[in-house]
């Protein structure tokens, strides 16, 4: 009887642990998806995305982001947290030139990859960045396993947003500059 109780306690612990693991999924969970939706709405409000988005002069990029890129940065407030928002527009297409993108940005826009610095403690090992990858219409893109690319994307995995960005010089996870150290 005692032994049976132990088994029951053990099974309950396993179930509990399993639930905690799901609740604490580093990315792609409901919390992250909802947060990414609010972030997209904020980007549209600030003209960083959507049909009235500010256009800058695109530059030539490198993989894994697009052939041609645009970068916009602004401090914004989401859910009472004010942080840096970095928006990268990724353009692609065969033999694509900067002039093509300037003249028809919508035709070549493939994805919008975003980093937003959330509240301290959100992801202290990784400078509290929230990552998201959106399709041009604002819907979230998925990884090959069907997980939405939003949150602490691919935390602990050998490839993906965090694994690659942690190699950025300055230790701020940002490649283009070291202002957010
Ligand atoms: C294999 C490496 C790699 C992966 C994976 C990667 N990035 Fe990047 N990312 C870069 C490099 C290199 C740059 C800077 C060069 C450039 O402008 O493309 C960059 C630039 C950026 C920037 C502009 C800020 C900066 O760091 O300069 C954002 C925002 C961004 N990436 C978001 C993401 C998101 C979101 C993901 C995951 C969905 C992701 N990246 C995955 C390498 C990577």
TrEMBL record:
Indicate yes or no for the key word Thylakoid.
Answer: no
- Residue ranges occupied by any Cytochrome P460 domain in the UniProt entry: 107-175
Keywords from UniProt, A to Z, are: Signal
Which InterPro entries does the record associate with it? Cytochrome_P460 (IPR032033), Cytochrome_P460_sp (IPR038142)
Signal peptide limits: 1-23
Q: What is the name listed in the Swiss-Prot or TrEMBL entry for this protein?
A: Cytochrome P460 family protein
The scientific name of the source species is: Amphritea atlantica
